[in-house]
Sequence to fold (85 residues):
Amino acid sequence: MAPRKRRSSRVRKAPPRGRSSSLTRADCRRLLALLRSDRNGVGALRDAVGELRRDSEIQFKRIAQLQAEVDEMKRLLPKSHAARG
Fold:
């Protein structure tokens, strides 16, 4: 088995204060505008998912009701009819 390589424990430090970064004010504005528009999109997506969830719950409840009715009908049928059919 080959020896494991050790990961560097050094953490990259932030640039000193006053030193400019590559992110400009225009970049920040563009990023904020993108985040705001995404927030609206995420809200619409959340609403759509909630609506689908409600629809699914209704369908599953109805399926359970139908299955209960089928089970009750099977229980009420005489066993001789069930064996022939």
